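#data-curation
PF: Archiving a pair of folding outputs for the training set. Convention for this channel: one message per protein, sequence first, structure tokens after, nothing in between. First:
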Amino acid sequence: MICEWVLVLVDKEAIRRKVLEALKNVYDPEIPVNIVDLGLVYGVDVDDNGNVRIRLTLTAPGCPAAGLVVLQAEEIVRQYVPEVKDVRVELVFDPPWDPRRITPEGRKMLKELFGYDVVQEWLKKMGLDKEKSGG
């Protein structure tokens, strides 16, 4: 019985990783960086039946493309991760997103686009540049 339980956990983690990888194909409509590297994905939960719950946010709560991002996330997971039985995307705004959530890879992409580290500039603007900024 213990071996079966461990096998389920391994499968759930593998599905979770595949879902995160698939979500790298979903882009913020205004920023040419995927939602994973922008730090918009707050969580991916997989239950014992292969159902997936994704919690994601937006860079701004009033984003008019909210429905599009949610729909794209659902469709991409269905397309790229066939072992998922059902997928539900929940849009959350707590905690609020800020640029510190951007991954190192996302920061690199933005730096290549804009020629400077947008996270570091944001930290300076907010008076937070003494904090550890991760890059």
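PF: Second:
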Amino acid sequence: MSLADFLTVEMIGFVAAFFTSASFLPQAIMVIRTRQTDGLSLTMYMMFTLGISLWLTYGLATTAWPLICANTITISLAGCILGIMLGNKWKAGEPRRAAKSRLCKIRAAKTARA
């Protein structure tokens, strides 16, 4: 591959990285401003953030600058959204309610067996 071809491929990578990362900006700005995450899937954001961190690791391992740049920005934005989502769920008491619900089911099962 010639230098011109290499630079063309790298430029395509950087343009793709820009649009991929920039696509997250409106969502991140809205969530940071409003703190509203009701319509977002926690599981999706957890899986997405894990996937982006793995892509970042791959980019670092292969010294692929478009991957490194895009995934550093995207993981920062997705991490903010994920942090706000987890904070909202914690404030709403969901982790505590889920634990209490499981405990009630265990007690009910023990009572039914006795």
